[in-house]
Amino acid sequence: MPAITAIYAHHVLHGLASFELVPPDVNEMARRRAEVLARGLPHLVAEAGGELAGYAYAAPYRERPAYRYALEDSVYVHPEYIGRGIGRALLEALIEACTAAGCRQLIAVIGDSGNAGSIGVHAACGFVRTGLQPSVGFKFGRWVDSVFMQKALGESDRTSPQATPERDKEQGSS
Hints:
Elements: H1 2-14, H2 26-38, E1 43-48, E2 51-60, E3 70-77, H3 86-100, E4 105-111, H4 116-124, E5 128-139, E6 142-152, H5 165-171
């Protein structure tokens, strides 16, 4: 968890991938990871050269029950490994895990419309741009956009999902 916390802190302090302004501590990051895993969702890591090179996870896109088959992805790469294929490898593995979990849509909410790396890796993995929210964040003294991209998984919307008590119970009936 310390390595994951350090990677995320770097992105909070130096990038626009996260709209957080203060990096969470290791206990908060562990709590977040435990919450993802408790939902039966993937939280993956990549190693290179004997160190953690990046991590990725999927979390519910929204909490309302109708969204229970849609997830939002998050991918963070250690700054020394950016541009070496770690992000793409993590995203490909995450797509596979989310598909295996029965999810039908994977959504990327990318901070900064100028984030060519994240937009590019998502496009290379089959995501399509579905929207732009201009100037929804304010960080580093400037307004920042959010880019929405989406990838259909498995049968997507071609068939009704097989309801599972776990997924239906998890989402409640809000």
